[in-house]
Amino acid sequence: MTILNDMQEQVKLAMKSGDARRRDALRLVQSALKKEFIDNGRVDLTPEKEIAVLSSEAKKRRESIDAYKLAGAEERAEQEAYELAIIQEFLPAGLSEDDVKKMIDELVAELQITSKKDLGKLMKSLMPKIKGRFPGDQAKKLVDSLNIE
After folding, report:
1. Which of 27, 87, 95, 107 is deepest in the core (most CB within 10 A)?
2. Whether the Cβ atoms of residue 45 and residue 4 lie closer than 8 Å to each other
3. How do residues 21-42 score in pLDDT, each as one tens digit?
4. What is the domain range of residue 74?
């Protein structure tokens, strides 16, 4: 079952239980997936593409939460956090920072990374492995902190 289909089932369940807040949050995320479906020429989305859309939506919510908190709009920040939690229900289990550090160390050995010039190659290999499971900006910070000349 695709994420979009699963989400449609969750919308139905939320409607039956009378949970309007959950229903509305699910519909927002569902509309992003449907938009991608239409933009993709009405061809079914691959699981990887669905995860990419959800990751993008999660990133937007994280950025919005920070912006609303800075602006003092706590109620709006709470709503964004709620939507983020809904999105995360459909994303694969996240990776811890330690897991990503292990992946980085393995890739450094595998790709024989010896200089800072090679860090782009490292990121290119790392990103598909962590997509949707760990924020790319945090992964970049971990890669930049490597003790490589």
Report:
1. 87
2. yes
3. 999 999 999 999 999 889 888 8
4. 3-90
